Amino acid sequence: MKELEERIRQDGTVKPGNVLKVDAFLNHQCDVSLFDQMGAAWAEHFAGKRITKILTIEASGIGIACMAARHFGNVPVVFAKKAQSINLDGDQYTTTVYSFTKQKEFPVIVSKKYLEAGDRVLLIDDFLANGKALRGLIALCEAAGASVEGIGIAVEKGFQGGGDKLREEGYDVDSLAIVESMDPETGRIEFR
């Protein structure tokens, strides 16, 4: 998606350690118009699929997932929580994922009330690096008996291989911007 690539070039910052900072428009301050365009692009890509739910992980995926839901007939958006709280009651699906950005493991939890057998799920997230977060969401879907119909990603770090592995396994991964390389010294970002 050219608009997203241009925005990354304009407002993204490359940091040491393969970190791409896009908080000016994607995961701290939100450009809702851009999110709407992203949702439309995913709706076009996954047009042949009957999506009944969108699943993401808190917090950065929630905004883009909600905007995307509008383009899929306002299907419900469910987000996996990263911590147990008193608001989470009843039976739950739980797994653990490793966050590349935060450099730590954390639980991901979804109430069994909101993810059920027969759900046809579109996974949405802001970043795909190694694919650990998506593996966690896939595990939650498998535990529920739900099918993963597709995966929508805003920014994929193609050089880290997570998306390629998922595609090799047969998942339909639609990344709107795939970063092929980035250089913290020059700030240069190359896309596939």
How would you characterize this protein structure?
By secondary structure, this protein is α/β, with parallel strands linked by helices. The protein has one domain: Rossmann fold (3-Layer(aba) Sandwich). It has helices at residues 2-11, 32-45, 60-70, 132-144, 162-168, and strands at residues 13-15, 19-21, 53-57, 77-80, 92-99, 104-111, 120-128, 147-157, 173-182, 189-191. The strands form 3 sheets. Strands 4-3-7-8-9-10 form a 6-stranded mixed beta sheet, sandwiched between helices. A two-stranded antiparallel sheet has the order 1-2. A two-stranded antiparallel ribbon has the order 5-6. β1 and β2 form a beta hairpin. α2 (32-45) packs across α3 (60-70). The chain starts with a helix and ends with a strand. Its EC number is 2.4.2.22. Converts the preformed base xanthine, a product of nucleic acid breakdown, to xanthosine 5'-monophosphate (XMP), so it can be reused for RNA or DNA synthesis.
Annotation keywords:
single chain, 192 residues, alpha/beta, Rossmann fold, 6-stranded mixed β-sheet, two-stranded antiparallel ribbon, 5 helices, 29% helix, globular, EC 2.4.2.22
